[in-house]
């Protein structure tokens, strides 16, 4: 590299690190956001490591024990609770420098590679991969649905995967072979689908179907008005978000082996499209741009959150925080205040609307967030810094909208492997 010119010299220092006379050089803010287009850029395109700090006895500090977990049920007590406001959401630390290695690009997947006849091979200027990054690889592609896939469920102890679609069918897939084992014709669109233990719940027009995969029993829960868009189980109750803005509640009766209607929660003015349970609370996201917080004990509305300016597509409990995403192109992190309410402690901005959120941990126990975006991609972020780790690419329609197929990706963490769903 020619470093004689002033501009090239700055590029050299930016790539190789600050010299003795550039100790005050700063990291490029736009590079951190993945949007720097300055060539050359006078600022660093890498993270600065903080000076190592060791105890007085010279021993290296031990790693702290992981304590974060994603909420799976009300018993996890993982919903938002009050924490100090000096949090680290959205901040990139020196120790996290390796995570910011994927710059957001406009690269597209090669259409000829998809068809299996690209003649350029490694020299092709388009991507020959479904992901930007090396943490995931395509395991298989399940084809058969003729319209949008609106729900994916894997019941506990089952070797079958269930998918529901707007093509008015539920397909059952063999997890070993990847083949479709059965097709169930429903006669109306599937709005959502979840699994809880051996049960599969399917949200449909004016009803919820409940199937027990162990006993092969089936129930039809009536009461909803219009399409059922969201389902969740918590505190031994089944909640269904409906098209008319209501949240219907059923309680399972063990003696009669059936679900009995309990009540209907009123408050939203438009369809309820997202539900999650955590810390003895029910959180509901709606097309009316609001999130409502309900007590699982009294089933009363405790608070209405109105910071989003478009449809609240998904809500997620993570440790003491609540995360929400919207078509307003933001992901918001909520934390409890002194009076027990919730307020926004950090807002992550996306270039497009956000359709769904999902949380997981890598093999080192580090929390990561999967964000399905309205630009046909799924992005994976390290938390709490929101550093982008990976980008799953799509070319055949948006995630959760307009897609007749969905792939399953294979996750690889430090040599270990685990399969997971993509695109529910």
TrEMBL record:
Keyword Repeat set for record: yes
Taxonomic source organism: Cannabis sativa (Hemp)
Protein's name in the database: C3H1-type domain-containing protein
GO molecular function: zinc ion binding
InterPro entries: Beta-prop_IP5PC_F (IPR056454), WD40/YVTN_repeat-like_dom_sf (IPR015943), WD40_PAC1 (IPR020472), WD40_repeat_dom_sf (IPR036322), WD40_rpt (IPR001680), WDR86-like (IPR044715), Znf-CCCH_4 (IPR041367), Znf_CCCH (IPR000571)
Region annotation Disordered: where it falls in the sequence: 1-23, 52-92
Alphabetized PROSITE patterns for the sequence: WD_REPEATS_2 (PS50082), WD_REPEATS_REGION (PS50294), ZF_C3H1 (PS50103)
Annotated WD repeat ranges: 142-183, 265-304
C3H1-type domain segment(s): 22-48, 104-131
Domain of life: Eukaryota
Keyword vocabulary terms for this entry: Metal-binding, Repeat, WD repeat, Zinc, Zinc-finger
Highest classification ranks of the organism: Eukaryota, Viridiplantae, Streptophyta, Embryophyta, Tracheophyta
Zinc finger (C3H1-type): 22-48, 104-131
């Amino acid at each position: 590299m020619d470093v004689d010119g002033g501009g090239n010299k700055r590029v050299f220092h930016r790539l190789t690190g600050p010299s003795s006379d550039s100790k005050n050089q700063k990291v490029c803010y736009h590079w951190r956001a993945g949007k720097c287009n300055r060539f050359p850029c006078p600022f660093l395109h890498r993270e600065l490591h903080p000076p190592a700090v060791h105890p007085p006895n010279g021993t290296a500090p031990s790693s702290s024990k992981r304590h974060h977990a994603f909420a799976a049920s009300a018993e996890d007590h993982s919903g938002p609770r009050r924490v100090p406001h000096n949090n680290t959401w959205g901040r990139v630390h020196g120790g996290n420098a390796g995570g910011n290695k994927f710059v957001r690009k406009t690269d597209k997947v090669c259409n000829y590679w998809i068809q299996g006849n690209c003649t350029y091979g490694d020299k092709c200027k388009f991507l020959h991969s479904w992901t930007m990054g090396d943490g995931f690889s395509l395991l298989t592609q399940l084809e058969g649905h003729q319209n949008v896939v609106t729900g994916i469920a894997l019941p506990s102890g089952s070797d079958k995967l269930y998918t529901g679609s707007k093509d008015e069918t539920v397909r059952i897939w063999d997890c070993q072979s990847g083949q479709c084992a059965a097709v169930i014709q429903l006669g109306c669109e599937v709005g959502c689908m979840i699994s809880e233990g051996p049960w599969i719940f399917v949200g449909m027009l004016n009803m919820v179907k409940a199937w027990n995969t162990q006993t092969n029993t089936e129930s039809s829960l009536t009461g909803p008005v219009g399409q059922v868009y969201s389902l969740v189980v918590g505190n031994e109750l089944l909640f269904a978000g409906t098209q008319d803005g209501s949240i219907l509640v059923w309680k399972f009766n063990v003696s009669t082996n059936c679900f009995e209607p309990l009540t209907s929660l009123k408050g939203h003015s438009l369809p309820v499209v997202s539900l999650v349970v955590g810390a003895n609370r029910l959180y509901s996201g709606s097309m009316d741009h609001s999130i409502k917080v309900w007590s699982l004990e009294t089933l009363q509305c405790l608070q209405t959150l109105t910071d989003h300016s478009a449809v609240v597509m998904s809500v997620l409990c993570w440790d003491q925080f609540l995360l929400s995403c919207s078509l307003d192109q933001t992901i918001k992190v909520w934390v409890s205040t002194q009076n027990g309410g919730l307020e926004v402690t950090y807002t992550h901005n996306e270039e497009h609307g956000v359709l769904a959120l999902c949380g997981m941990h890598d093999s080192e126990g580090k929390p990561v967030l999967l964000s399905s975006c309205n630009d046909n991609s799924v992005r994976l972020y390290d938390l709490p810094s929101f550093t982008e780790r990976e980008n799953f690419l799509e070319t055949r329609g948006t995630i959760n909208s307009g897609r007749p197929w969905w792939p399953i990706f294979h996750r690889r963490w430090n040599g270990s492997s685990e399969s997971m769903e993509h695109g529910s």
